[in-house]
Design brief:
This protein is of the alpha/beta class. It contains three helices and six strands, in the order H-E-E-E-H-E-E-E-H. The protein has helices spanning about 5-10, 70-85, 125-130, and strands spanning about 20, 30-45, 50-60, 90-95, 100-110, 115.
Amino acid sequence: MTLEQIKEILPNLDNVEFQLEDGTFVPEHFHVTEVGQITKNFIDCGGTLRTEKVVNFQLWNADDFEHRLKPNKLLHIIQLSESKLGIENSEIEVEYQAETIGKYDLEFNGKHFVLKNKHTACLAEDACGISNQKPKVKLSEIQSSCCTPNSGCC
């Protein structure tokens, strides 16, 4: 989800709710403690220089049970960060702490924002020699190993 997409969704909501992929909800008394843009410059294992930009939201589970973040307040925080920090329209990455700080992609299921688990991947698969596909082998063509009944290897 991009920053522009969340800005289109927020005015149509009564509440801002975040849900993890496993169905667990972020406690309703969470705070958005940061909105910013993160630029990551790096080199992949194939030697290619890369740059990534994401808009970062940090959710914090406070013990403040009296306040709830409303959609118009979050929209105001986003607009303030755009004007003060010059944030561009990019994909949103959410930081949220469960056992440790996790980074999540963001989707909307029509009612709640869903924190989608992120996964690592090789960006230079052609250079590192690791194939994504396992070779297909017919079991009937496999030579029997030394471990046959009564062979003494087991």
